[in-house]
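sorry for the late reply, my laptop died twice this morning and i had to redo everyting from scratch. anyway the thing you sent over, i finally got around to it. pasting the sequence first so we're on the same page, its 195 residues, then the predicted structure underneath. double check i copied it right bc i was rushing
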Amino acid sequence: MHIFRALSAILLITPAFAACSAGTSQSPEPATFVETRTSMEPKPRGDTRLQSAMMRAHNDARAKVGAPKLVWNDELAKDAAVYAASMARTGKFAHDPQMGRSPRQGENLWMGTRDAYGYGEMIDAWVDEDRYFKRGLFPDNSTTGTWGDVAHYTQIIWPTSLRVGCAVASNDRDDFLVCRYGPAGNVVGRDPLKG
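ok and here's the structure:
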């Protein structure tokens, strides 16, 4: 079994967890998800597979709420790759402070046991947050009362985010997935279904 932990900029020793940046200084509380594994064989990898899995999952989730399709952006993917490599090198799972970057990019993070998860499983951890989503102004969008339980999902469906780029980097133990969004979503006081 592997454990998912959804957090924002909090490092815990767990086999897999995720984090999402938002336009607020609050940190969401960790949420635990348990998943049974039928195989520990390494999952297929590659840039084409990554882009295909990310675009399919993002745009399927967006279609369900009437948001326009995202397009892949190589510059966002390059920025995501640089930051994923930094996390893999340091082993630190935390949001990029994006010092000096204007405008800031939206960011979803995921970390899990190296080669244990396919790309679809990685992003499904974010998309599956839709089960806790409720309509309202961000960050009051979670049926649990904790915005971090839906913050990856709200960034994915944010209708004014039009571009995405993602990358995965690995160290000896873990995979790090970073997706960057432009323009950033999760804007405090705005409706995730209207932007």
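Residues 47-64 form the longest helix (18 residues).
thats about all i looked at so far, will dig more tmrw
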